Amino acid sequence: MNPKVFEAPYASVTYYPEKRLLVLIWDGSPSTEEYKKPFMAMLEYGRKYPVDCMLSDISRQGVISPDNRKWFEKEMMPLAAQAGLRRAAIVTNGNAFKLYYINLILGAVNKFSITTKLFNKQNEALEWLDHFRVEVNS
Question: What percent of the chain is modeled with pLDDT above 70?
Fold first, then answer.
């Protein structure tokens, strides 16, 4: 069984050790404090166990405040890059508000050596991340 790194009504994080992958699934609109908690749990977990990849499923995530987005860009992304994150997949339902949010996030992510790609389905995102793992292990 894959360990839960974080569990709350608004988000959960699961670790897949064979893939060196953390999967964050959002559900609803987190407050500012709630928004930070799963990310901080992921960073803490990554200090103990190898993590190269991340999947964030925001298809059921509500609206994210500009303050949360700025925190993610200015604080979380540099920490994730320092921790060794190399690839990130984002799963979204593609509504206009989320695409605006994602485009702003991608602008911040592109400053780091983290390859990021958008997907409509979780299984497609996992296949892409698996392809990366195969390349690394070859």
Answer: 93
